[in-house]
Please model this.
Amino acid sequence: MANRVTIFENVCKGCGLCTLVCPKKIMKIDKNRFNDKGYNPSAVTDISQCIACAMCAAMCPDSAIKVEKE
Model:
């Protein structure tokens, strides 16, 4: 099992705080998608680079991110 990042897209407001704290810079706001509330949710660009530090989950004000370490 590899590291896993689950983004609860319908909770995400697309604030971008997770993108600021990711040490690998693999979090981004997906400008091509919208959730049910009309926000652009966060997305992981390259899960193989994820070190499962959970900084993104800790920073998220809405608890929209869950990180699981392998």
Summary: The longest strand covers residues 4-7. The chain has a mean pLDDT of 96.
